[in-house]
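PT: before anyone asks, these are the final sequences, not the draft ones from last week. 647 residues across everything. Please model them as a single complex and drop the result in this thread when it's through.
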Amino acid sequence: MAASGSLRVEALSKNYLPPGCPPVPVLHGVSLAFAPGDYVAVMGPSGSGKSTFLALLGCLDTPSGGHYWIDGDDVAGLDSDALSALRNRVFGFVFQGFHLLPRATLLDNVALPMLYAGRSRRERHARAAELLAQVGLAGLERRYPTQLSGGQQQRVAIARALANRPAWLLADEPTGNLDSHTSGEIMAIFDRLNAEGLAIVLVTHEADIAAHARRLVRFADGQVIEDRPLDPAAATAESAP
Amino acid sequence: MFTTLIAEAMRSLGANTLRTLLAMLGMIIGVAAVVLMLAVGEGSRLRVAETIATLGRDILNIYSGTPAVAGVRTAAGSAPTLTRADADAIAQLESVQAVAPAHYGNTQLQYGGSNWSSSVFGSTPEFSEVRNWEVASGAPLDDGDLRTAAQKVVLGATVAENLFGDASPLGKMLRIKGQPYEVIGVFRPKGSNLDGRDQDDLVWVPLTAAQGKLFGNPFPGTVRFITVKASAESGKGVAERDITALLRQRHRLPADAENDFSIRDITASAESAAQAAQAMSVLLGAIASVSLLVGGIGIMNIMLVTVTERTREIGVRRAIGARRRDILLQFLLESLLICLTGGVLGAGLGVGGAWVAAEFFDTPVVVDLRTAVAAFGFSTAVGLFFGYYPAHRAAAMQPVEALRTA
Ligand SMILES: Nc1ncnc2c1ncn2[C@@H]1O[C@H](COP(=O)(O)OP(=O)(O)OP(=O)(O)O)[C@@H](O)[C@H]1O
Ligand SMILES: [Mg+2]
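LR: through. Structure below.
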């Protein structure tokens, strides 16, 4: 899997087809390009299609129209296994609700993507322990997610997202369930990871969270209405849109 | 990788112990039924086969009298129609291997202070060959004994044991109807037949002694019955036809007259018992299959519930890179694990049930490697068959929709 960097969508659209109801158009004509190492904040009102867009970007869902290229390869031609492989190795996901497996230890949660990548048990455990240490949870390998605070759970989710050294971290309101202090800690981790070369797309409703990014994409009614660079120096000065 | 998957499967099953156990219960009962069915079916099949082997193959008994009134006991006053000359003529037939004319009665045997009532067979030396009676110790009766109507006797194992206990009866004199007879041999025991009758409760004396001295014979030259062993090549069907033709000719029966004798196949009842055992096995098999089916449906039901409950987990796994077949494998493994564990417990229960049947109800059972193979095979098959649909449903979910589920 050589994919490592650029993502490009062209006239991307998505209609939901709820059974027994007329189709719901959610995205229409979204065209965007992301370069390796990008740090992008996605904002917009509720229902504007941010989560839908992120799911398409992460190959969790398939578009209704338009094109999507990863490193110049058209995603439309890929089968289910190839999409799984992309999610496994090219993208890492962080969700608002953490989405850890409650019956698995933190170590097993973080090691899981490596299991699907076919890595050996020793490798999985060594790297999972290292990742937990990186997000400040060394020594808690044998704990279960329910024994942790929300901030700690989100750190585990980040560690899990990093397991197979993805090129992209896709985060849908990662701080949505956290207080501002804990949010700051999570964002500090994101900033560090981006500085180390990881590209990040981050959906958020909060301007001070978005201000950590270097680029802002704003959605409204399923379309991009704003796409501009952010001045990282102005991070603290940025206020509500 | 595989050990991790099995550990994961055990963990998810362990998370809901009661539900897992209830799902397993159907399998336990189903597999126990299969194991019991096989043990009992095989046991009765073997018992019947052994019985047929002790009776001897291709044995026909020919009795005096028309088939309607035929029996060992002929109608009072009427002369028996079978003669020793008939027996000699039958022995000449191509399709007959050996012939023994016989006379028999029930009477009292005495030795010292012991009394025992038994069947006394008077017959020729061929008797032991025809009826498959092997003389285990001592010697069989011979032609000299027949000619001289020697007062010699060969004992069935039951008689020997009841009159002599552990002591060797060879050379001892016992009294049959008050007359002294010398014990010259003891038969190898055959055990009881399918009706539970003890086959070893008999003694064998020369035909001449039985007719001349013990029971008398108001119609000289006749015999009560003739027992015949058909030759292996032609079988009993051909032998029966040849004997019928021969006897009709010898007895000068007109073409429209009924036979004045009847021929019975003594293994026929054992063979019908074999068929009954077979039918029993089929019935038990049907019951076992139904319980396995019910068990399998229970597994499927539980697995469908599990898959629905864990939709979000499936979404998470797909989001971090699980392929469809990883999810399929995960849920198939869980149903297999339930079924195999249930299979092992069920096999234990079935073997226990077979032991109880053998010990307390005297049912013949056979438990062997096939039992284990069947239990393993059936539980694997049920696990895969009934686990497949729920696992397939889990694998077919769209990641994003699975994730959105609360
Ligand atoms: N499965 C679905 N079926 C029908 N409509 C859907 C489905 N999923 C989402 N939608 C609709 O698509 C629209 C966009 O949803 P999406 O989750 O992308 O919004 P969002 O921008 O992430 O909003 P929020 O900020 O509240 O998370 C919404 O109007 C929603 O009702
Ligand atoms: Mg959203």
